[in-house]
Amino acid sequence: MHKKSIRDLNIRGKRVLMRVDFNVPLDEKQRITDDTRIKAALPSIKYALKYDAKLILMSHLGRPKGEVKKELSLAPSAVRLSKLLGKEVKMMKDCIGEEVKEAVKGMKDGDVILLENLRFHKEETKNDENFAKELASLGDVFVNDAFGTCHRAHASTVGVTKFLPSACGFLVEKEIDYFDKLIKNPDKPFALILGGAKVSDKIKVIENMLHKIDFLLIGGAMAYTFLKSRMKSIGNSKVELDKVGLADDIFKKARENNVSIFLPEDNVIAQEISAKTKVQIVGENIPDGWIGLDIGPKTTKKYCSVLKDAKTICWNGPVGYFELKPFRKGTTEIAKFISKLKATTVIGGGDTAAAINELGLGKKMSHISTGGGASLEYLEGIELPGIVALNDKWS
Fold first, then answer.
1. Helices marked H in the chain — which ranges?
2. Fewest Cβ atoms closer than 10 Å to its Cβ: which of 13, 144, 145, 169?
3. Is 198 among the residues known to form the active site?
């Protein structure tokens, strides 16, 4: 990796301004329902404290659009982090201003402060230079450990790097290492599993990865656009009619690159999207009035037989409507199967990561990305602004 790591910075006794991703889910009583993202930042946080840094953490939560919204306060994250660290994490009422400056001024070595939600200020998402400068004034060095926001050119990810020496934290470093290997030097054979709702969301991923992969396994609602291009009956399944021609082009490009594409050979179908609906299993063709909502057992078996010899597997998007029990078997079976392989298994963020974690298989995968949008853009071959902005090792 050519970007500086937190290891490359002199942080002993310094004020370390660290961008973390505490954009965690909350229930109606503002209680954290999943603290995975907070725990993901712990290695960098503990490393900074090991060197007696004065640690100033900043994050966003939700989309308050520049307004102060009590229900999107980061206070619950401060409480949870305090418990995880076994020490007080002081919560600020804002992320800039005199009160914050005074609190930082009074910090002792090893103290931790969490700034309030960055997006309570509209200047954050606009990458406003003055706002970035105010944030930067709180630290001596900047560490970005929020991979989930690295695809956004915001004040706290890009703007602050103009004013402070910068590096990535351990989480971002790990993400870069895994995705760089996928893009530049994957072990072969390389299988890419794509699911989710829309072909349009994954077009750029397919186009960028077609000359790197050996197998493309397609599931989820996007499979029905591909099946339509193969002249299959898809009933009332979700389809992007304007992308059928594109799906046809992808098959042609795959042949040119010696890539094998696999589509569902059987489908779990229903007449409505509901947990209590009647389901059936049919072959490639879906009757009118029915919706394809998961890959069937024949397809699951076929996909597993393809994956068994892969040395690298990247998976982005569940292969069925995982949110409802009748349509999660395909995703579950494939997840269980690849968790036992010796291959490098990289799970894209978002819904796929949530499904893998819900199945309790997170620790059996090589890497689960913490950024849905960021991981997708990485696979598309886009340089992420939050990473580009960090200092290079040789600078």
1. 36-40, 42-50, 75-85, 98-105, 129-136, 170-184, 203-209, 223-229, 244-256, 297-307, 329-339, 350-358, 372-379, 385-388
2. 13
3. yes
